[in-house]
UniProtKB/TrEMBL annotation:
Domain Peptidase C51: 58-132
The name this protein goes by in its record: TIGR02594 family protein
InterPro entries: CHAP_dom, CHP02594, Papain-like_cys_pep_sf
UniProt feature coiled coil, ranges: none
Organism: Alteraurantiacibacter palmitatis
Gene3D superfamilies per record: endopeptidase domain like (from Nostoc punctiforme)
Amino acid sequence: MKPLPPAYGWIDDLRPLPRILEEARKLYGTFEVAGPGNNSAIMGWAKETGLTKTFTADSIPWCGLFMAVVAKRAGWPMVEGPLWARNWAKFGTSADRAQLGDILVFRRAQGSGHVGLYVGEDYGAFHVLGGNQSDGVTITRIARDRCIAIRRPVYRKTPASAKPVQLAANGVLSTNEA
């Protein structure tokens, strides 16, 4: 497992993590291949989730694929049409306030979207662990006002760590997660 940036190292010390976040953490540091090649790990996620007919190259936006594979590995169902980020607004149940391990759906230009997992927040942004953020599985800050849905897995027993997390507002604010 690749190390997290120092500002997020606390995640590796916190147990138990929500299952979906635990699965996502294992994939941190995976990056697509620049140019015509494909990362075999990312292409393997398409095979694992049964999405090889619609996901044929890692140059295709893959934040939804990332969510599909971590949801599947955590034992949660995928949403219909999981490659379309905004479809994740139908996952689990709606929540008014984000907490560790929640799925956040964001709007982007021209009706497109982005999806990732909440790891914290500051006064103006959510800190999001997601795929296809700067072409990899990274943690990035995304403006709160772009969030259109907070979705929570339906837990039998909510992990003790599933709560809001206040973080410092350090790092660049993302404007385009691709």
